What does this fold into?
Amino acid sequence: MTDVARSPTRREALGIESRQRILAAATALMAERGYAGTSIAAVKKKSGLPSGSIYWHFENKEALLLSVIEQAAARWIEALPDTESLTGLPEERIQTFLNAAAQALEERPEFIRLILLISLERRDVDSTSLVPIRRARTLVRERLTTLFGGLLSSPDPKSKDSVARRFADFALMVADGAFIAHHLDRETTDLRAAFDLMRTALTVFLDENAAAASDV
Amino acid sequence: MTDVARSPTRREALGIESRQRILAAATALMAERGYAGTSIAAVKKKSGLPSGSIYWHFENKEALLLSVIEQAAARWIEALPDTESLTGLPEERIQTFLNAAAQALEERPEFIRLILLISLERRDVDSTSLVPIRRARTLVRERLTTLFGGLLSSPDPKSKDSVARRFADFALMVADGAFIAHHLDRETTDLRAAFDLMRTALTVFLDENAAAASDV
Amino acid sequence: MTDVARSPTRREALGIESRQRILAAATALMAERGYAGTSIAAVKKKSGLPSGSIYWHFENKEALLLSVIEQAAARWIEALPDTESLTGLPEERIQTFLNAAAQALEERPEFIRLILLISLERRDVDSTSLVPIRRARTLVRERLTTLFGGLLSSPDPKSKDSVARRFADFALMVADGAFIAHHLDRETTDLRAAFDLMRTALTVFLDENAAAASDV
Amino acid sequence: MTDVARSPTRREALGIESRQRILAAATALMAERGYAGTSIAAVKKKSGLPSGSIYWHFENKEALLLSVIEQAAARWIEALPDTESLTGLPEERIQTFLNAAAQALEERPEFIRLILLISLERRDVDSTSLVPIRRARTLVRERLTTLFGGLLSSPDPKSKDSVARRFADFALMVADGAFIAHHLDRETTDLRAAFDLMRTALTVFLDENAAAASDV
DNA sequence: TATGAATGAGCATTCATTCAT
DNA sequence: CATGAATGAATGCTCATTCAT
It folds into this structure.
């Protein structure tokens, strides 16, 4: 008896849609005003579903937040290009990856906004909501580490990985910082220029690394 | 003996101290839990002063937030070294400045935390609280621009300023991003390493700029 | 069996009863102490229902006041006899009507008390609550005008209506004034005597009118 | 040793003026919004004097109300003509008196408004504030009784007084009712017409009384 | 005589949550 | 699966009043 994925009944499908509507409303509100600033009444109003339904689908407000973050984190990861799909010269691969990241930042700022806001707001209150956030960030860092590792030319795999990791951390920092700058000083900030500068920096690091490696 | 600027009476001095106690409590709480997450009851409990007194010193919660931010922004600026006090070679100056910035980040993280949290949380609610934040950031950016301008060697002052400004933006981004990384992935993040990487990047940019300038 | 106007479920019936309990408590309190003098806590205590329930049934205190007034106005009108039901000689009809009015005043003074108090207290604050009051008074004035119109004997319908209207205004004034006298100087005031005097006055007016009409 | 009314010192005069300013502000506010609807903060704002000063001049809010009412009642009585000053035929005397009353109603509605509002609002809370109100009304009723008594021609002084008293009560009722009508249905109410009607009624009563007296 | 600062009880209202249907 | 009614704790804020100066 195989576990055949039976298609949901009409009733179930309706339930799934309701859940999704609540999740979408909560995501938008929490990304805008934070967790404490988002009332169940506001979610009810925005989703169009009665508050009772919200508590049918989610145990409580905390659980709703967790689902919101999990979904947002999953989508954030989906938006980033897979490192394996990148080809060409090192500089080209970096360029492609950073372009994709900058584009994701510009087009779907709500996810990063949500992640940053919640992680700042909830750190000392309840850290369970930070788990999926950390998991997602770790995944992104690993992807970046893999990318840089593939571009470095050190003979020592251990030091290579360490250098790649440092580059990855640096890239993530610039991305976060760029988002905040874009968010806070939108008029005076040129997001693309910042990513260009980062690309230059990373390319230079790579070149230095290549030179150091050939010295050996 | 003219009656200029009479010193405050005992009662007035007490009032000033009360105000300061409320402000300190509110700053700590809002930096930790955000604006919406900080209740007046919590401020009352933490400051030890009755809620009526809070409303005697501040018109409402919004006004309290504004005062909190203004004080935090002022202290944040005070903590940063003045560019004029920096001496030595370009690399040394950058190093000194970044060291001071990293130290401020490590020792007094609450101010940046507050600034980032509030600017994310309140953006779409009420932007008046963002005014002192933007003012402080602009001041820091200008200080950085001056620093880099003094180290660049372009003959064209206009392009020099433009380059210095881009470097300043970049540095601020890395600083913000570093704070977030430090905050979110404390175990896996090496703040000093990130600032070292930024220093390297900036030094390389400067060298490239020097080379480009001598080409002319 | 069509599904028209289904009877309320047990829960719904309970809700209606709750609403009615709140309304009754608020009516009694507001008629006694006015709008500003009636706290939600007092309504909660008197009705026995939690404050949250009050806000479930009424949007806010203002809306509760409006409902209170609407209900009171409706009952006030119900208490007054319909002019069409009056028979007999003019003097008898007037007597019957005034008796009913005096009785209503004595038995259910709360409604007039509420109407007078609120209309004095809220005039310059928010006049929406005066709308149902004005509507009710207009209806009473029209009923009185009809009554007097039926008793007058002027050949000119226009002047007849104008005279009837003046009599109606006058009767309403004496009724209001009688209530206040009854309220303020209860010991020294004889409500029935006042209504008797009014009846005499109105009868005399009618006679004068008849004489004037026959002169033509 | 006569009780020479020494003129107040400058300091005292200032105090009297402050007291008067507070009283004026409180009168206006309480006549508009009632006692419960008038906060000390509002009196402070309207009078321009600090709340501490209000409590220096008046023991508490209740005492302030009492002073407000006493002053208002005194002025209300002052505004009415003395019955002894009235001369001429009975009808003329009534006309003069009612004209003065109607004028007072139109020109200084705040006093009646205050008296009616407070007496409705405070009846069941604290009746001490009703004492000066009752005293003032009694005085007015007596003045009216004297006026009518002088116009009546009954040989029996006891019955004469009783009739005069009934007329006085009736006149007061119409006056109060006229004020309310003027207040509530200003557009549709003709205050002068109502007073004219009352005058007619009173004159008729007097004539009837004269006829009845001569019958004896 | 006057007053600005303070106080805690009380205010109207919203909150997250429960539950009978 | 869904929902409208209910609940009482907690919210931001105003209140009448006190008191050192």
Observations:
- Chains A and C do not touch (no CB pair under 8 Å).
